[in-house]
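Entry: 4-aminobutyrate aminotransferase, putative
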Amino acid sequence: MFRTQILKTAPKELSHYTSRLNPGIGRAHKLLLDRGQGSYLYDASGKKYLDLACGIGVTNLGHCHPRLVKVVQNQAAKLWHGQLCHGVHTAMADLIEEMQTILPEQLNSLMFSSTGAEAVETALKIARSSTGRQNVVVMQGGFHGRTNACLSLTTSKYVYAQTTRPLMPGVVVAPPPYATQLHIDNDTDVEVMSKRCLAVLEDLIHQASHPSEVAMLLVEPVLGEGGYLPLPAVYLRGLRQVCDKYGILLTFDEVQTGFMRTGSFFAFNQFQVMPDILIFAKGIANGLPLAGVATRQEIANKCPVGTHGGTYAGNALACASAAEVIRVMKEEKIFDNVAERNVQFMDALKNFAREPNSPITEIRGRGLMIGIQFDAAAGFASAVVNAAVERGLVLLNTSKYEVLRLIPPLNITKEETDEALQKLFDSIRAVSKDFKVTSNGGSVKPCCPTACYGGNQPCRWLRV
């Protein structure tokens, strides 16, 4: 009876439930969601929404993929929870075997946890235990979670740590090559900008710390909350060189970029740059809580027994789902679809951005992790998000700048992509009428000085 009453409750009555939740929870929408299927969400009234948020990059294979449903149902009838202190359950053993097929052989030590933030803290403990050092270098605009230690490493927005200070000391913040954040022209050469940022990084390592005190350098290959900014390959290779020079562990936070989101199982696969520590979460189990850290065995061996664990670490249901996610991504050719839909999105966005009154100044991203930056008054991107949900499209904005992010299911179809783009463009046009926007004059700046997406020219940000 109670569930029936909920299903009949209109979204306008959602306040009855949200009032019982902590008011510190941030919300982009006011939806009472009931179910999901494929690329769509449905609220309690039955309204259908095309989901281009995927729970912030979690449901990479869409909602309720039939193979995942079957695997989880079978596991639920077999074992829900098997504690690590007792050994290894067969669902985790299966996941370990699958992970070995997508990880470099050097990253041969795994630690599973429940959330991305927990995995980041695990990586921090591993780095400190291995090096005997305490400090960490992070990127300006990076996001690594909301626990106390992770907030100390997060610089994308001040509000995340507001009222919770003091935070963990020993954190050095370095600027990534992001023209908007550096307050330089968007046409600045990628390699020139990267080299300058690397020089500043070396200065900071010696001024705000000392190389002998830095345990790890933590970076997202594509900044998420920082603006969906793909870091150039030349910059990431430079980070590897700096870390090698000073004995610092290069740590990639691939919580959002991992599991085919950027067009490969992990974004670092595209850069020819090997991390010492890899953090993953979100898309690994397609919605069930699972995260983890991969590192080299000689690094992991420095961790004393008892320093790692967790009640729900490597939950059996989540592990079963994750192992099947990897198999589905291989067998259903998700890589090919990501490449095709990337071209479809980018070509359509490029054409729309060329319209005389378009407020779009930059289109950037890899795979199906796409950012759209606007030259408009504060609140423009949020207004587009609100206009889109009224049209049945779920979107999210990101960063302190006016940036919209597109995070569709990786198996989204051509027809669904066309539908999403039409609703997106209708929303941008509608909001532009009410906001002060700066027209780009029909000329949009891509993430590189010369547009390459959708064509045969290799991306300069990826060039190796």
